[in-house]
Design a protein that fits this description.
about 325 residues, alpha+beta, L-amino peptidase D-ALA esterase/amidase, nine-stranded mixed β-sheet, three-stranded antiparallel β-sheet, 5 helices, 18 strands, about 30% strand, hydrolase, aminopeptidase activity, EC 3.4.11.-, aminopeptidase
């Protein structure tokens, strides 16, 4: 089975602080790649996404940042830019090359030490790690401080993480890497059973975030408990910016199949779609595989996670 890092033209690296429970993940495409984005959540934290609008000029991106730290974590993009400039990668403006780095962040400040966040040094460190080792999953990189199932409060939450999957048909490869930090539960799309989410102990039981949200209609509470699921679809397909944007849109079906509820006002759900341009194919096929890859990556993110910073993972239940 192909790995996400087998897709030519990209490298992926993590950097994190396990004690502070935060980190970042970078996807490098030094030669440039076509990228689109679809932001569905109501509380996003993003960088340079306006550039990805198909009507705008720049048509190649050199790096994608996924990070914890909420808006503070966007600082890590400066380290990605420094690394790429040193490698001679970027948009040529004559006097230098300006790396085009887009990004999105998730809220993990209430897990671990909120005073430590991804910064320029951590972004640079993630670039140095890119391609140098097997791509780890779970409680690493942007998924280090991720948690899921927070409608009933942080004390009932479970560990989230980051997951990666690569699918294909013929010469086409479509993969996804997703950091799962949702307000709701992660469910098995086949039967709807909860895989990870809000839970109680003694006796153990999942609380069901979607039903809990509906039950709170008469007594609304502050549900901003720190959310957002962010990720990227990566493919070797030939895509225009418009097509990449459509693939990112279709990829959100993977969130809808596995996260309940998804795309709430309190999530900043974002997906980038990156095409390295080696295989010409029907874009609808790319979109279908993208949704499947995101679906599987979400499940891997929580099943590969480990307990951290006092938050229990589903594997320990």
């Amino acid at each position: 089975m192909a790995k996400l890092t087998d897709i030519p033209g990209i490298r992926i690296g993590h950097a994190d602080n396990q004690v502070a429970a935060t980190g970042c993940t970078v996807i490098l495409c030094p030669e440039g790649a076509t990228v689109g984005v679809d932001v569905r959540g109501g509380a996003p934290g993003t960088r340079e996404t306006d550039l990805l609008n198909p009507v705008n000029y720049v048509d190649k991106v050199h790096g994608i940042l996924l990070a914890g730290g909420s808006a503070f974590g966007l600082d890590a993009a400066a380290g990605v830019m420094q690394y790429l400039e040193e490698q001679g990668s970027g948009f040529d403006v004559g006097v230098t090359k300006v790396p085009i780095v887009v990004g999105a962040v998730l809220f993990d400040l209430n897990c671990g030490d909120y005073q430590i966040r991804p910064d320029k040094c951590m972004g640079y460190e993630a670039c140095q790690a890119a391609g140098s080792q097997e791509l780890a999953e779970g409680s690493v990189g942007a998924g280090t401080g991720a948690t899921v199932g927070k409608i009933f409060g942080a004390e009932h939450a479970m560990k989230g993480g980051i997951g990666a999957v690569c699918l294909g048909t013929g010469s086409l490869m479509v993969g996804a890497i997703v950091a799962v930090n949702c307000l709701g539960d992660v469910v098995n799309p086949i039967n709807g059973s909860i895989v990870a989410g809000a839970f109680q102990t003694n006796p153990f039981a999942f609380l069901n975030c979607e039903e809990g949200l509906l039950a709170q209609q008469e007594k609304p509470s502050n549900r901003f408990a720190g959310n957002t699921t962010i990720g990227a679809v990566i493919t070797n397909a030939v895509m225009t910016k418009g097509q990449a944007t459509k693939v990112a849109s279709m990829a959100h079906n993977g969130y809808a199949r596995t996260i309940r509820p998804a795309h709430t006002l309190f999530d900043g759900d974002t997906i980038f779609a990156l095409g390295t341009g080696q295989v010409a194919v029907d874009i609808n096929i790319v979109g279908v595989l993208a949704a499947r890859a995101v679906e599987q990556a979400v499940l891997r993110a929580v099943t590969q996670a480990k307990s951290l910073a006092g938050v229990t993972c589903c594997g320990d239940i």
